[in-house]
């Protein structure tokens, strides 16, 4: 059993979830600011305010499956015996494609590209850990299942909305598409849960298709909660239909630029500070439509970019840039279900080259990052072993 220290007043939802601050030698910010309107916890909880010793331990079967490989310490490491985790029974029978940030070794271990000299030869594995500065702003929330996860997600959103509305009279929410949308349906379950007339909703990414197309992220969200919540349509920033993708991106950026700064303030670099950005994560580690090793993922200018050759259909999309995502007050990466277990483990525990796992580049500069997981998606995590992990030396 492995004990994780928790900060004394974590700014996290407490309903139906286990909470782990990502440990980097268990460094945590001692006292994150409390929220004015954090909803009361319901159901069975880990009350982190009174239980600083919440446990997060691998399931017994998983423990048995774990193997560790002692490796030689490389320059800059703080510990003598760094270890690498092993993923057994991967879905990629021929190995994880290099573009996805790691090599699957014949032994079953995963070697990140950054230090690999080729399959089976002289691997010096590095676990991915968030750098110390950023780790203090990052929390992993593990819910029992997708249902309690969706309830927890709704709490986070409602709480962020209450804070923002109190402070500036409006709430700006950015959402993604994909499987995450289903979890958002809970948002409108109680029409009095928030003053939805103050909400502004934009997309982290969208497919360049008609709004009625089954592939449209707007359509999914509209059906899941936008209509039921009654968010004013002029505050729902959907794509203009029928344009070539470059123009769609420009037009969308224009829509966001026109949001008054009282509603959507900017940071010192001119990027918008959304109150909450919710991202899904694809099996290749993509977030929004920022795919591994693509130019959009490396972009450090602009708010919105076109994607004309997305590796995941449909090929034409628009996406927010990473600086926009990282300027947000809060970012949630939402991954529920065991289909996400493999990528969650790699994103949180295996270092990739910058850009090879876009999810690893999500690091809000001033805000907080939450990973929202459930038992399925957290199933491969080796959190109990993190304390033994080699300290963070990036290969860049
Ligand atoms: O294409 C997309 O994929 C990701 C992940 O979707 P999922 O269905 O695998 O959960 C999503 O976050 C993104 O917004 C979407 O456009």
Walk me through this protein's architecture.
- By secondary structure, this protein is an alpha/beta fold.
- The protein has a single domain (17-54, 129-388), classed as Rossmann fold (3-Layer(aba) Sandwich), CATH 3.40.50.1360.
- Helix content is 20%, strand content 14%.
- It has helices at 60-65, 132-135, 146-168, 180-183, 217-229, 245-257, 295-298, 322-326, 341-349; strands at 17-21, 102-104, 110-112, 138-143, 171-175, 199-203, 205-207, 276-279, 304-307, 317-320, 330-335, 368-374.
- Strands 1-4-12-11-8-5-6 form a 7-stranded mixed sheet, covered by helices on one side. It has a 3-stranded antiparallel sheet with strand order 7-10-9.
- A hairpin with a 5-residue loop joins strand 2 (102-104) and strand 3 (110-112).
- It starts with 16 loop residues before the first strand and ends in a 22-residue tail after the last strand.
- Mean pLDDT is 71; it is low at 1-17, 21-106, 110-128 and 386-396.
- The structure holds ligand LXAUTJHC.
- The ligand O=C1O[C@H](COP(=O)(O)O)[C@@H](O)[C@H](O)[C@H]1O is lined by residues 176-180, 205, 217, 279-280, 282, 288-289, 312.
- Ligand LXAUTJHC binds at residues 176-180, 205, 217, 279-280, 282, 288-289, 312.
């Amino acid at each position: 059993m492995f004990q994780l220290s928790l900060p004394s007043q974590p700014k996290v939802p407490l309903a139906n979830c286990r909470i782990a601050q990502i440990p980097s030698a268990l460094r945590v910010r001692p006292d994150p600011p409390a929220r004015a309107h954090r909803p009361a916890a319901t159901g069975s909880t880990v009350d982190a305010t009174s239980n600083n010793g919440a446990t997060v331990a691998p399931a017994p079967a998983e423990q048995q499956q774990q193997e560790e490989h002692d490796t030689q310490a490389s320059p800059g490491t703080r510990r003598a015996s760094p270890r690498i985790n092993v993923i057994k029974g991967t879905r990629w029978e021929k190995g994880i494609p290099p573009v996805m940030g790691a090599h699957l070794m014949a032994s079953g271990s995963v070697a990140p590209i950054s230090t690999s000299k080729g399959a089976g030869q002289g691997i010096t594995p590095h676990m991915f850990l968030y750098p110390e500065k950023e780790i203090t702003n990052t929390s992993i929330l593990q819910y029992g299942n997708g249902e309690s996860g969706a309830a927890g997600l709704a709490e986070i959103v409602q709480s962020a909305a209450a804070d923002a509305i109190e402070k500036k009279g409006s709430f700006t929410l950015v959402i993604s598409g994909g499987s995450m949308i289903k979890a958002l349906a809970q948002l409108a379950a109680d029409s009095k849960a928030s003053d939805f007339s103050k909400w502004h909703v934009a997309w982290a990414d969208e497919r360049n298709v008609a709004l009625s197309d089954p592939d449209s992220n707007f359509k999914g969200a509209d059906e899941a909660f936008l209509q039921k919540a009654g968010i004013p349509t002029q505050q729902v920033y959907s794509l203009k239909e029928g344009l070539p993708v470059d123009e769609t991106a420009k037009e969308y950026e224009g829509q966001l630029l026109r949001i008054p700064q009282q509603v959507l303030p900017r940071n010192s670099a001119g990027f918008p500070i959304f109150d909450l950005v919710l991202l899904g994560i694809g099996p290749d580690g993509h977030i929004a439509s920022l795919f591994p090793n693509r130019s959009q993922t490396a972009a450090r200018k602009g708010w919105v970019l076109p994607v004309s050759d997305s590796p995941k259909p449909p090929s034409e999309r628009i996406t927010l840039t990473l600086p926009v995502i990282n300027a947000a007050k809060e970012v949630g990466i939402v991954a529920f279900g065991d289909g996400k277990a493999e990528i969650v483990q790699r994103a949180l525990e295996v270092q990739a080259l910058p850009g090879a796992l876009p999810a690893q580049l999500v690091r809000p500069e001033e805000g907080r990052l939450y990973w929202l997981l459930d038992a399925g998606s957290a199933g491969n995590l080796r959190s109990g072993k993190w304390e033994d992990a080699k300290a963070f030396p990036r290969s860049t």
